[in-house]
Amino acid sequence: MTRAVALRLGVFAGALALAFAAAFGIGSAVDPIAAADPPKPEAMADMGGAHGGGHSESGGQLPGLAVSDAGYTLAPETTFFTAGSKTVLRFQIKGPDGKPVSGYTPTHEKELHLIVVRRDLSGFHHVHPTRDAAGTWSIPFSFTAGGTWRLYADFQPSGLDRTLTLGVDVNVSGLYIPVPLNEPASSYSVHAYDVTLAGTPVAGKESELTFKVSSGGKPVTDLQPYLGAFGHLVSLRSGDLAYLHNHPAQHADAGMQGGPEIKFGTTFPTAGTYRLFLDFQHAGTVHTAEFTVQVGDSGTAIVPPTELPDESEPHSHGEETHK
Ligand SMILES: [Cu+2]
To answer: Superkingdom, according to UniProt (predicted)?
Structure first.
């Protein structure tokens, strides 16, 4: 009984921590992003629904919305989990022949990228499972709170000339406190870093987004390459969690230094609210900055704050908090 109580309390504390984190800027909705980086013409056409998607079972819809596409299926071993306990995520990608895929073309130094996020867009993770000889992918994982979570597998099977992003929902039992999306903001603080965002996103057209990383009021000029780029941007569209994945045009080789700016050409397929997750690496650690972005049919400028908090001030997150 003591153990059960402790477990419950643990789950509750985890959920509170998550809710607290969310209040300070985690969890929002984003946009469907093209699977390719840089976006290939056909992927862009898919995003805009410009052609019929004859090559695709999903009828040309945005990446991340379907569990099967082009004959490939994301097949999790189970879709039931318990919050707060260590588990192992296991899944296969089944190919057109129904067998687990064992041939992949690496994209950004990995055969497969796994994104895990709760459907309210809180609790984002970008991880890299390992594959066994039988084609089963696995990675240790702990869900921080209950709710419906979504797994995205972003990969390129060697039999296909483009990347696929397949998505599946999983059920996590445990305390569920939905976290509202943060209001749109042009700055986000994570650990010792302040990240600002500037740009003028427009629906259906490529727009440049510029992130700038500072620490203690000083620009960071020694960002490290992470998986071949100085930044990885995943955007999820609020409402249906359609998925976009972008990288800077500039390739980053080991030993190069980047920053403070990281620029992306991003095409948001439709107007709407998107949650952007920027992964960057500094001093050996990967951090994720999150932004809620409102995309309209005519561009609205996102203006970064002119003054960043310096270390003498209490750490500000520059975003409205929700109670
Ligand atoms: Cu990845």
So the answer is: Bacteria
Burial class (CB in 10 A: 0-12, 13-18, 19+), 238: buried
Domain boundaries, the chain: 45-173
Instruction: Using the mean position of ligand 1's atoms as its centre, give its distance from the Cα of residue 13 in Å.
Output: 29
Q: How far is the CA of 114 from the centre of ligand 1 (A)?
A: 6
246 C-alpha to center of ligand 1: Å? 11
Q: How far is the CA of 155 from the centre of ligand 1 (A)?
A: 9
**Rounded distance from Cα 112 to ligand 1 centre (Å):** 7
For residues 92-108, average pLDDT: 96
For β-strands 80-82 and 164-173, DSSP reports them as parallel
- Fold category of 45-173 in CATH: Immunoglobulin-like (2.60.40)
Tokens representing 217 are 């009021």
Q: Model confidence over 134-176: pLDDT tens digits?
A: 999 999 999 999 999 999 999 999 999 999 999 999 999 999 9
Ligand 1 mean position to 165 CA, how many Å?
A: 12
